[in-house]
Amino acid sequence: MNYTDPVFSSLPRNLQFNDASPFWSNKGDNAWQLTATTMVGMQSVPGLVILYGSMVKKKWAVNSAFMALYGFAAVLLCWVLWAHNMSFGTRLCPIVGRPGFAMTPNILHRFEGYYVPKADYVYFQFVFAAITVILLAGSLLGRMNFYAWMLFVPMWLTLSYTVGAFSIWGNGFLEKHIIDYAGGFVIHLSSGVAGFTAAYWVGPRQAHDRQHFPPNNIIHMLGGAGFLWLGWTGFNGGSPFAANGIASLAILNTHVCTATSLLVWVSLDMIVYKKSSVIGAVQGMITGLVCITPGAGIVEPWAAILMGAMSGSIPWYTMMVLHKRSPFFQRVDDTLGVFHTHAVAGVLGGLLSGFFARPNLLRMMYRSNRYGPGLLYCIKDRNLSRGLRQMWFQILGALFIIAWNAVVTSLICFLISRIVDLRMKEEELDIGDDAVHGEEAYALWGDGEKTPASIRKHMRIPSIGRRQK
């Protein structure tokens, strides 16, 4: 914080920081920011906790949900102690800031010409960092050693996420060039690439689990997806740090794009597979949310609809067609298809944002002319070179995030493998939650008790229709 700023230098020192509601803090904006941030936090807890715990096979429900819950808590502590300043603090080098305690007293955060309490900014950026790590976990469900995950979270946050955040959002070398309104590159592309890379190093699930991995509770899965969808109101609506027109536009665009993407994905399922899949609808919902994120407040609603159509079709093709035909994709067991729903949709959204970004909306959001405008408007204004320049920066940003996450995630997995096994033991993979945590998701034996291991081992459940002797 620069204490020589005119907004503070004209006041006595005791009036600058001793008022709980100072003149520079808009109560409406502050209230919206805290609300939006909490909505984003609820996407992870309970949203992704429920989604992951329901979308996997029954024997992995507890482990999958717990990975999300642990990630949320671990990221918070690391974020406050050192990672926030590495992402948004004083520059250490062009790609990362200096580590340090985030909540230094009497420090405010300046955001594009006005001020918000530092605690607001730390809180908001924390929930973004947390959901990035938890999304990454979707690639690793059903076989990663939980102790390895406990080490992975702080290491990846420190060495990977902070670099992407500082480079594009902080004071890094790409900050004045890349259009990434709310995290298409920083959050979704990084989680998709890192998840896919970590899945390669951890190894696949057991063959039977990989071939037969039905959700244990589709209704609960939809409940978790609902938290994710509606929580995105805060994700994109909170990014301007004000309850203004950009926030309202971002919220509308978010839901319009998501609805379009979901309907396109379901339509393609019905055309090709002759059935409408609930899981497919959730995947289409997620790709729509991801695709609109880098451009939510800076594109027109009609562009959001087009982005939704592409986010419901292109990731559908990579997941449902290309993935099944490609030996490269088949070698990596990405449990929930995070590469397709986040990496592919994130790149798509970042490139489309560079194409559709409207000039006046960019100026309203960033209060400068350093971004864009989108290639479409440059073609209209016969300034093609400027539009192509912006598209080049969008591509450069994507390449940087992909390369950094692939390399650093591999190094992290290598280091952890020297301490603990990345993958669970085969006997733990056979049993699941009970072997790993001593707990099961559903009590189905006796009066709220688990099935005793000695009985479960010798149980013989007859197939439907088979005569019992």
UniProtKB/TrEMBL annotation:
It is found in: Cell membrane. SUPFAM superfamilies: Ammonium transporter (SSF111352). The keyword Transmembrane applies. Belongs to the ammonia transporter channel (TC 1.A.11.2) family. GO terms for molecular function: ammonium channel activity. Residues 32-442 form the Ammonium transporter AmtB-like domain. Gene3D superfamilies: Ammonium transporter AmtB like domains. One of its GO terms (cellular component) is plasma membrane. Keywords: Ammonia transport, Membrane, Transmembrane, Transmembrane helix, Transport. This is Ammonium transporter. InterPro entries: Ammonium/urea_transptr (IPR029020), Ammonium_transpt (IPR001905), Ammonium_transpt_CS (IPR018047), NH4_transpt_AmtB-like_dom (IPR024041), RhesusRHD (IPR002229). The chain crosses the membrane at residues 31-53, 60-82, 121-141, 148-169, 181-203, 215-235, 241-266, 278-296, 302-323, 335-357, 391-416. It is a multi-pass membrane protein.
